[in-house]
Structures are given as C-alpha cells and as structure tokens.
Design goal:
By secondary structure, this protein is α/β, with parallel strands linked by helices. It has 6 helices and 7 strands. Helices cover 40% and strands 16% of the residues. Strand 4, helix 3 and strand 5 form a beta-alpha-beta unit. It holds the Pfam family adh_short_C2.
Amino acid sequence: MNSQQKVAIVTGASQGIGAAMVKAFRDRNYRVVANSRSIKPSSDPDVITVAGDIADRAVAQRIVTEALSRFGRIDTLVNNAGIFVAKPFTDYTVEDYANVLSVNLTGFFHISQLALAEMEKQGSGHIVNISTSLVDHAIDGVPSVLASLTKGGLNAATKSMAIEYAKRGIRVNAVSPGIIKSPMHAPETHGVLAGLHPVGRMGEMSDITDAVIYLDSAGFVTGEILHVDGGQSAGH
C-alpha cells in the first residue's frame, strides 16, 4: 500500500456530480471510497463502493472503516449526497421533511464527524460540502424552502467547522452550484433552466468537479462558499 497516495470519500456517488467527482479524483490518482444507496461494486481496485443510506450511522462507519483498512488514510471528504424536493412550502409532507433532513443534514453529520476524527489523527484533511445557490438567491417558480433550510445549514456549518479545525490542519469549504446538467433534469427542461442563469446556460458537471479539485489543492482557502452558478447568486 502506498500510504502517501491520497484518499477521497464521495457520497451520493452513483450518478451525476458524485460519479463525475469519483472520476475526477481517479484522474488525479486519488483512491476513492464511493457511497450511495444504489451504488454497484467497482472493477477499479482503487475505488471501493459502499452501498447504503448515508443517514445511517452504521453506513458512515463502514465507509470510514473501509477507507482505513484498505487505503490507510482519509484526505478528503466530499459531502455530495442530497435530496431536492421542489414543492410549495405548504405542500411538503412530514415524510418530505424527514427525508430531506435525513440525507442533507443527518448524513452530513455522521460521515463528517467520523472522517474528521481520523483527519485529526493525521493532522491534515479537507471537507467539501455541496450546497446550492438557491440558499443565497431564491428563484420565483423554483420552490426550495427545504433545500434552503438544509443547505443553508451546511453553509453555516462550513464556516463554523473551518474555524474550529483551522489550527488542526483541517480545512472545510463548500461549493454552491447553480443548476447543473445531470440525470435529474430532463433535456426538454434545459432551455428554461439555462435562462435562470445570467450567463445563459446551465452548469456542466465538470464545472463542479473543477471547483472541488481547486479547493482541494488550495491550502490557504478555508471557510469558503464557492459559488459556481453562472452568476445566479450575484443577481439578475
């Protein structure tokens, strides 16, 4: 085992931004532990997949245990798993509320706490939380209260954790995307969604992976909420 080869954990990694993130890390010779409820086994010996709900403490523990037993370290955690439910506020059900908070906040809590404990032992590490620019710039016609409630919490936690761990060699940042071309957006909606961004286009998954990779290499950056949203958070 090359203990100097960096190791990243990516949640929500079976498709979309998460899957692209796994590829981006592998392209840079990181070993990766990838998690989602439905993730399939990997044929790449440097990618471990752990299936399960990240809101389950036992799943988060299994991810960390696998990273340490197989790769010997944890350098980066990308909290990408998330649920977005677009409903008017009064239409949310109790189940919607529980599901969104479970993945967006409880999942973040479990895996971040366990990974941070190992990063502290190393004296180094980096956490990147995937947020949304809807927190800063709500859009008429895109109901997003639960997303703003949970991802806004992640933004606040990002800054708080960055300060708490700054002197322990651990950085914490967030990437705040606009609307990204991914399997969750049908192609026939792309024209309308592109118009929600001042630059006139949706984001590509590479826009987000590039931002995460930048933050991972930016040793003097911590507590940052990096907006990658085509100007959406700046205004219209």
